[in-house]
Amino acid sequence: MQFSLFALLSLLATTTTVAASALTITIPPSTLLPNPNVLPAGTHAALTSLPSSTQTKSGSSLPHPLTAPLTRSSTFVFRNLPVSKPESYLLDIRSPEYVFAPYRVDVAADGTVLGVWETFRGNPWDNRGQEKFVVDVADSGKTSDVTVEAKVLARKGFYEKRATFSPLSLFKNPMILLAIVALGFTFGMPKLMENMDPEMRAEFEAQSRSGPLSGATRSAMTGGGSPADFDLAGWMAGSSKGGSNSGAGGSAPQGATTGRDGGGSTRRRG
Amino acid sequence: MRLQATLLVLASCVPSAFAIYPDEVNHVDFHHALLGVPSSHSTFFLKPSPSSNASLLYTLSEQSLLGAINPRDGTLIWRQNVSRSSLPGDHGILRASDGANAVVSAVGDYVSSWSALDGKLIWENWFEGEAVTDLELLELEDATAAASSAKDTIALFGGKAGVVRRFDGDSGEVKWEYKDDSNDLPFQVSSSATEVFYISLQSALLKGNKIKVTSLDTLNGRQNHHVVLNSESDVSGPESVLFVGANTASPLIVWADKANKSLKVNVIGTKQVSTLNIENTSGEEIQSITVHTAKKLNSLPHFLVHYETASGSWAEVYHVDLKSAVASKAYSLPFLQSWSVFATSNVDANVYFTRITESELTIVSSASHGILGRWPLPATLSERGVHAVSEVVTKGDTVAVRSAALLESGDWKLIRNGQIEWTRYEALFGALAATWAEADDQEDLAHQLEVEGHESLIKAYVHRVNRHVHDLQYLPDWLKELPTRVLTSLVTDEVSNLDGFGIHKSVIVATENGRVYALDSSNHGTVAWSVKAAEADSWDVKSIITRPGSATVYLDDGSSVTLNTTSGAILDRAAATTQVRSIAFINDDGTPLAIGIKPNGAPMDSVDRPGFFVTQSDDGRVLGWSAKNSKSPVWDFAPVPGQKIIHATTRPSHDPVASIGKVLGNRSVLYKYLNRSLVLVTAVGDNTASFYLLDGISGKILHVSTQEGVDTTQPIASAMSENWFAYSFWGDATDPSDAKGYQLVVSELYESSIPNDRGPLDSAANYSSIDTLPLPHVVSQSFIIPEAISHMAVTQTRQGITTRQLLCTLPASNSLVGIPRQVLDPRRPFGRDATAAEAEEGLFKYSPFLEFDGKWYLSHTRDVAGIRSVISTPTLLESTSLIFAYGGDIFATRATPSQSFDILGKEFSKMQLLLTIVALGVGVAILSPMTRKKRVNQIWKATS
């Protein structure tokens, strides 16, 4: 009994194979996927729709959802679409790393593909996108094989990049840049001043004394340009007055009150 | 300002919170890509490329997975699931031919050909209702047809009548078919260089079967002639024929008489049957006879017959005279008191036989009995061998051999010249249950602390001092180890030594073949031990429950086996009682207790402890029980007529809640509806699915949602944690303006819809589920997701402070994805951008489509196939949750949903820190004399 049923089914299957058109999806090379041959063997396409309730009750001899594995030529072939009624399928292509655009595939009751459109997930099923294929009504007597091209939307990035230590990245830090500029001033300015002619130097000194330059820069010029005297933190905080001491205080206790007014204090002591 | 700062923090942590770093791969995770137990007739070495001499190991497993293994290290190169037949396919058939780059498989009514190098499809074909009984590749000698490298396939389909079909090697199209209209039983096909033979069993008049050989033309499939062999006295069915020769120069049919006294050999196509006496010197009854021949077309017509008795085995080698078609005995391999497995291999036309016994591996040529190579085996091969394949290389007089042997335990080992190169634990495929082992080394300390807690202040203090003095004995060892520990910590991958934080737990796995494995998660999941725990060949494990130091496996017949988790020794066995449906576990305080649940949903016995169960019964109801009363349920729940309960889920047993409310952007609070005893029941009807949220104590329905247009044949998964639950299904467009696709619905439960309101119960410390249980305020949102989810779980951490991830198994893309909870917040604003207050909460605009971000993939690029269940467990680190997936492959990883905030990451380099300190020290040492000098000079110069 079961065998005869199977035989009948197989007869049906062979007859529908004749009428039905095969649906082939090709993967063209694209900028995201220059060589479709790199896709792993697990890549497959699936046609999904709600099976009719009679189909589910009969134990579903038809495979569901329909899947097609990736072939050697980077295509997916649905050879015979076993349908009993007009069906509107969602076509997904699943690959571990690449995201493909979903398509809508409408199939007639005799298994011919009526049309293939792009579709958008989370949008009404009616909202069809770009048309990929639509059956020609004029010669509907002939069934032809349908070939559509898949579209790669994106490539998934699975990994987080680890921040690696590179000296170059140090220089991208604005604090470090500021520090370097400041260092340049402290070392470079005295040299510049020495090379200047005396008149101009006098003029510049007068100007900088009355000008808006912060105390640190002034002390850098007046205090002999010692790098150890320069208080970077204080300079960046913009504090011009108050008891900000230099770090070298510990080693030279008598010079604890040096700093930007160091010249004055030492003179007083003398 | 503060708001902006918070926003910045949120924005920086929401999008890129979880992905794995490339250098953590294989360090935080491990994966066993499995195929299942390789079947004996469909496993072989093959050179897929004609240009290269390298060969791969191919198999079609008993679970219908087709795969290629690299014989060098045992890694899987590709695999395909070929169980696409609608027929209940028994074991499949796999055939291939050297240098053809194609393997052809048949399972049930599905025939497919795959590219041998990369596993991509060449062709596939279905013949509905006709199961393939045999498959051969045509090896034609005439060069005309074999001009292309693709070899045609001959397949025999059984069904009502036997059909032989020839498939084109490139396109898979049927070139011809031959239908056998007689009522013979289709048995095998075989081919020689010039003809195709169809072998069927013709029932004789009285009893037994005659073997009928029909010769077919290779070009058009027409019948040339047929021969009937008088075998009715010996052959009672297909199982009596020992062998039908495949693709040798002289294909054979071999069968034995019923008393196993003589062997009958027929060269296919001739009428002659040679009768050979079996010289049984062992004095024991022969239990099985196996025939091994070479599979290559041009190989010598020699074959080996392997005789097995209860205690040992021997083999005899026969030669076939091609002219007279008579087989004669050449020599015999001695009887050994051990199991043996034999394998044949070819080098050009020469045939070599490899014999593996429990102690050694020997190799002989088919031409003479001299042993060409003999290697003793390591003692680890204690399990009985099932089958083996081998590959022999000759260089002058020396031979080298590598054999892939399958042992009874399901271990697949590659033995190269007597050395075990690798082992694949194929029995782990389709594991039934798994859980983490609990180490018992902390038990003693816990006990001591408990003692201290219960004593008076002074006594406890004395106890503690004593304990510390006692601990001093470990100090010298600790000090001795210290330098090496400091040094190694500078160079190891992991910055912090995490051994003490419960990261490296071993996993206990119970497999289908009645074995229990312990996988060492600190060492790439290697098998620490494996034991045969079942007394039968297979078992139905309901649950594994671990206690410190031991694990107990509970079976469906009410029995249980307890094992030591460190050694695998069987500590205890409990006898079978009655059939159980599942195991309930009471673990409130004191001794943990397991109670079996009968198929009708009733617990086996009642205990005098507070507690309640929710059980499912075989007749499709959900029952609630008090632990004290196993006679009658407190409540029972049945869905509406026409619906069937398929799944029920609860909150995990370890599910701490860090905060009882959710602080909104305007500093008001939405209080979570927290109920320890929630049950989410999934019931399906005709294209509908209903999700019932029940209170487990009273059975009261708290919330129902019904979805239309649901494909109930596709997976419907659900999970619950804290005050939220999620489920997914295939939802079809019932209306053209609906969306079509897989949907994920997430719902949150609150005490009230109004912030700062706690509903009728307010902040009552106690409430009754039975009298006045208020209904929760449910907020839901649904998303379209790109693919089906077959199983859901939730990450568990120690305190529940870390945000949770919804762990989803994606069967279509063979991966495991952890969706962060922030994304699945049903309060995401709909149709507008989030306001500043909402953004502060971490909410962003709702979009109906939820694409799985690559960074959410816990399995990253791994192909984790066939996962049936995912379990999660907390570690002592709040940030880290352990995840273990089983059921097909084995995959384990560590998830850090809010990033590893409590451990130093790999980017923290101790070396760099040390170098910086040294550099600073050097700088200070150089600069300080300089400055001192300068300052002194300055003073002198200024005063002068």
TrEMBL record, chain A:
Residues 35-178 form the ER membrane protein complex subunit 7 beta-sandwich domain. Its main location: membrane. The keyword Ubl conjugation does not apply. InterPro entries: Beta_sandwich_EMC7, EMC7. Residues 240-252, 260-270 have a biased composition (Gly residues). One of its GO terms (cellular component) is EMC complex. Residues 204-270 are annotated as: Disordered. Residues 207-220 have a biased composition (Polar residues). It is found in: Membrane. Coiled coil: none annotated. It is a single-pass membrane protein. Pfam families: EMC7_beta-sandw. Residues 1-20 form the signal peptide. The keyword Oxidoreductase does not apply. Keywords: Membrane, Signal, Transmembrane, Transmembrane helix. This is ER membrane protein complex subunit 7 beta-sandwich domain-containing protein. It comes from Aspergillus nanangensis.
From TrEMBL, chain B:
Residues 19-426 form the EMC1 first beta-propeller domain. Its main location: endoplasmic reticulum. GO terms for biological process: protein folding in endoplasmic reticulum. InterPro entries: Beta-prop_EMC1_1st, EMC1, EMC1_C, PQQ_b-propeller_rpt, Quinoprotein_ADH-like_sf, WD40/YVTN_repeat-like_dom_sf. Residues 721-940 form the ER membrane protein complex subunit 1 C-terminal domain. The chain crosses the membrane at residues 913-931. The keyword Signal applies. One of its GO terms (cellular component) is EMC complex. Component of the ER membrane protein complex (EMC). This is ER membrane protein complex subunit 1. It comes from Aspergillus nanangensis.
